[in-house]
């Protein structure tokens, strides 16, 4: 497919989620990349424009560079299904499920895929009870938020109340998760169904092990190792696990799964899957793609070519 055959393309960016700032960075990068390849691409911010304008203005397909709620959670995907405009990334159901970390874990667990123990909590008291059950350290985070926004690594029971309040400010649904000490890695998947393939694994080495919002996007202190330098066979095992996780949720197009490797047992544990990953200068999918010989510009075009509808 030539870039001219894509027709008029909207790069959806910005939106109304807590990740708006990151989405604008992702979208700007994608827009420039597509335009540099001759694609008739235009910026479109759903927070500032009504979705029906996409149809009225003759857009033929959408590249979704939105992150978080109202963009990565099935809502925009549903609107595009109604408008009949093909879009990048997983469909309505897969997007909605993947955005909900609890639902994702329930499905993975039912399919026999390893994910850390968790508790859903509705109060600070619940959070303290979860801390007693799961042990220290424990992660407290919003169920439907990304980019580590609202996340706390709890080391003592006295931190539970503040951790719950911080997470609940982002989402009324809050979860506590057993902390897995060890290597933090991430692995993108490109493609659909049997043609989907796991990309090179990236090992993340953050300052003092703190891979937070600031260290993700706005500093150069975090190390991203690709090749990942893991022991022989571990990278292939993680890629196989991530591919299963991707297919289990019926994802398509692309996604990126985050994994912790237990330092003691070397067992990989699935944390979550991102169905509209970042495409900023610090982002991990472009980094992994580069290691596989795919430039940022070619990656954007390749993803755009996978744009489709659930009910096409």
UniProtKB/TrEMBL annotation:
The Enzyme Commission number assigned here is 6.3.2.4
Q: Which Pfam families match?
A: Dala_Dala_lig_C, Dala_Dala_lig_N
Keywords tagged on the record:
ATP-binding, Cell shape, Cell wall biogenesis/degradation, Cytoplasm, Ligase, Magnesium, Manganese, Metal-binding, Nucleotide-binding, Peptidoglycan synthesis
Q: Where do the annotations place Mg(2+) 1 binding?
A: 258, 272
SUPFAM superfamilies recorded: Glutathione synthetase ATP-binding domain-like, PreATP-grasp domain
Q: Which residues form the active site?
A: 19, 147, 283
- Indicate whether Endoplasmic reticulum appears among the record's keywords: no
- UniProt cofactor(s): Mn(2+); Mg(2+)
List the catalysed reactions.
2 D-alanine + ATP = D-alanyl-D-alanine + ADP + phosphate + H(+)
Which molecular-function annotations from GO does this UniProt entry contain?
ATP binding; D-alanine-D-alanine ligase activity; metal ion binding
* Any GO BP: regulation of cell shape
Residues that coordinate or bind Mg(2+) 2: 272, 274
- GO CC annotation: cytosol
Q: What residues does the ATP-grasp domain cover?
A: 105-305
The record's similarity note reads: Belongs to the D-alanine--D-alanine ligase family.
State its role: Cell wall formation.
How is this protein named in the record?
A: D-alanine--D-alanine ligase
What species was this sequence derived from?
Hydrogenophaga intermedia
Q: Which gene encodes it?
A: ddl
